[in-house]
Amino acid sequence: MTGIPGDDPWFRNYRPAPDAPVRLVCLPHAGGSASFYFPVARALSPRVEVLAVQYPGRQDRHSEPSETDLTVLAERIAEALGPWTDRPYALFGHSMGAVVGFEVARLMQAAGRGPVELFVSGRRAPSLDRSGEWQPSTDEEVIAEIRSLNGTGDALLRDKEMLSMILPALRADYAAVRRYRYRPGPLLDCPVTAFTGDRDPKARVEEVRAWENHTASGFGLHVLPGGHFFLVDRQAEVLRTVEDRMARSRAVPM
Q1: Is residue 118 within 8 Å of residue 102, measured between CB atoms?
Q2: Which Pfam family, any one of them, does this sequence belong to (predicted)?
Q3: pLDDT tens-digit profile of 227-245?
């Protein structure tokens, strides 16, 4: 396949790269949308074709109900991803997207079409117990949480009209994160590469290191300066590692 049909609701291909030997499928954070990865597509094309996942309930899918079950969301993405596995691909997820990516990787591996690598960013390993951790539930708590993580501009959070548009997706995503429970299963047979910021309160280094317990095929940890959204400021460093790892994984030609 050389492009994404206009009626495909799940993927956005901002910079088509039909001759790229590999795809990178990117999954957004809570409240995030596919456009978060537009700079990634711009930076990697034409060497890598970037598919940014668009969750229901935001941007051009705002009329659809958001999914409040991460496992179901992963199942829907895995089903949609099937036709796009005609060439090697890797998964990249930030924060909530890392957990969704992990569940997608498990499903695709079980179907015999697993990724060459799973990249996880700003997220503790899914097997770590979260049952006692406080999570925001009210609108006020969700907004305060987003503001504290510097994930959305403060001006946007003060704009009542814009806030009314993004809050439903934020509420749904935080509900999905609260409800998620890790289910033991086979280890991934692809490598896992993890990134985190050295000041990220949501993904401390030792918690992120525990991702190595989820793969039988190699693990790497990269700690970069910054908080939860270190990815924005350190994009070049992260993408250099991503490209290098994809070139090595299963001898994908680059």
Answers
A1: yes
A2: Thioesterase
A3: 888 888 999 999 999 999 9
